[in-house]
Specification:
Blueprint (H helix, E strand, L loop, with lengths): L7 H18 L5 H4 L3 H17 L5 H25 L1 H14 L5 H12 L21 H20 L4 H19 L2 H4 L9 H16 L1 H5 L3 H26 L10 H13 L8 H14 L1 H13 L6 H25 L10
Length: 346
C-alpha cells in the first residue's frame, strides 16, 4: 500500500505539461514537441492518484462508489466547460452541416458522433470532425470517463494480474503508433487517437506505479532523471525524424512516447518541490487545459486581421497571457462568490 501524501512534483509538472499542450495548439515550434508528453503525463498521474486510493478500498461497493465519483467529477468538469464553448459548438454545427450538404437525420447522427469524438484526424492530418463540440481538448475528459471503467474491467477479467492487461494495452498502443507515426507507410487511419483506447496504456502505467510504489520510490532520483533525460532526447529526435520523412512535426504517439512519459512520472513521484499553494498550482493546470481554445480562436482571428497570421510564438505568448489573466479572475471569483459551479471548473 502507498501512504497518503501530496505529490507536489505531480502538481508542478502537470502545470508545465498544460503549458506544453497550449504550445501544441498554438503550433509554437519546439515547445509543441515537448508538449506531446502532456497528455501521457496527465493520464499516468490520473491513474496513479486514482489507484493510490482505490486499491486501499477492500469493499467492492466502496470501490464502485469511488469509480462513480471519479467519472462523475470528470463529467461535471466537461459539462461546465461545454456550456462555455456553446457559441463555438453552434458555429461548428453549422460548418459540419454545410460540409454534409444540409441538415438531415443522418447528418445529425454524424454530428452526434463527431460531438463525442471532436478531435479525430485521418492519416493526412485532415480534421474529420471539425472539433464538433467546440473544444478539441475535451476528448481527454470523455476518453477518461470510458477508459477507467474499461481498465478496471480488464483487471477483473485477468484476476488483477497486470501483465496480461499490460500486454493487451501495448498491443493497442502498437496499433495506434502504426496508424499515427507510420500512417504514411501503413495507410491506417489514426481514428483511435482521441478515444479511450489511447488512454488504457497510461492508466495501466499509473496502476503499475501504485502496485510497485515502494520499489520505485527506492530508485535513486539521480538515476531516474538521467534515464528520463536520455529518453527525452530520443523522443525529441524521433519527432524530428518523423517530421523529416513525413512532414508531420508533432505526432500524437511515437515509439518513445510511452517510456518517456512513464519515466517522467517516475521522476515526478520522488520530486517534492516546496509549493506554497499546491492546490492552486493543480487547479491552474486544469484551468489552462480547458480554457485555452477561446483565446486561441479569438487571437488567431485578430492576428490574421493585423497581417500577423503564422506568428506562432507570438500567438503562444498572447494565449498564455490571456489564460493566466483569466485564471486570476477565476480565482478571484471563487474567493468572492460561493457559486457552486465554479468548483467543477478545475
Amino acid at each position: 500500500m502507498t501512504s497518503k501524501r501530496i505529490y507536489t512534483g505531480f502538481d508542478l509538472i502537470k502545470l508545465i505539461a498544460a503549458v506544453g499542450i497550449i504550445a501544441i495548439h498554438t503550433h509554437a515550434p519546439f515547445l509543441n514537441v515537448a508538449g506531446r508528453l502532456g497528455v501521457p503525463f496527465f493520464a499516468i498521474v490520473s491513474g496513479f492518484l486514482f489507484f493510490n486510493h482505490y486499491q486501499q478500498l477492500t469493499n467492492a461497493e466502496e470501490q464502485r462508489s469511488y469509480l462513480r465519483k471519479f467519472c462523475k467529477r470528470i463529467f461535471f468538469l466537461y459539462a461546465i466547460w461545454q456550456v462555455i464553448y456553446i457559441p463555438i459548438a453552434i458555429h461548428q454545427f453549422r460548418v459540419i452541416m454545410a460540409s454534409l450538404k444540409g441538415f438531415s437525420v443522418k447528418n445529425l447522427m454524424i454530428y452526434v458522433i463527431d460531438f463525442i469524438f471532436p478531435a479525430v484526424y485521418n492519416a493526412q492530418g485532415v480534421d474529420l470532425t471539425k472539433d464538433a463540440n467546440g473544444w478539441g481538448p475535451s476528448w481527454y475528459l470523455l476518453a477518461s470517463i470510458v477508459a477507467m471503467p474499461v481498465f478496471i474491467f480488464l483487471l477483473k477479467i485477468f484476476r488483477n494480474h497486470v501483465i496480461p492487461v499490460l500486454l493487451l494495452c501495448l498491443f493497442i498502443e502498437i496499433f495506434i503508433i502504426l496508424s499515427d507515426e507510420f500512417g504514411s507507410i501503413t495507410h491506417l487511419e489514426p481514428i483511435f487517437n482521441h478515444t479511450f483506447l489511447r488512454l488504457l496504456i497510461y492508466f495501466c502505467l499509473g496502476y503499475i506505479l501504485v502496485k510497485y510504489n515502494e520499489q520505485i520510490k527506492a530508485w535513486p532520483q539521480q538515476r531516474s532523471i538521467v534515464f528520463f533525460a536520455l529518453l527525452f532526447c530520443l523522443f525529441f529526435a524521433e519527432n524530428l525524424l518523423v517530421h523529416f520523412y513525413s512532414g508531420t512535426y508533432t505526432t500524437e504517439e511515437i515509439i518513445t512516447t510511452v517510456p518517456t512519459g512513464f519515466m517522467l512520472a517516475v521522476v515526478a513521484i520522488n520530486f517534492q518541490p516546496k509549493l506554497t499553494h499546491p492546490v492552486q498550482v493543480r487547479n491552474l493546470s486544469t484551468f489552462l487545459y480547458c480554457f485555452q481554445i477561446w483565446p486561441i480562436v479569438v487571437l488567431e482571428k485578430l492576428l490574421e486581421i493585423v497581417s500577423l497570421k503564422g506568428q506562432y510564438i507570438l500567438l503562444f505568448i498572447l494565449v498564455m497571457l490571456v489564460s493566466l489573466v483569466a485564471a486570476y479572475i477565476y480565482e478571484w471569483l471563487c474567493k468572492r462568490f460561493n457559486w457552486g459551479f465554479l468548483k467543477y471548473m478545475v
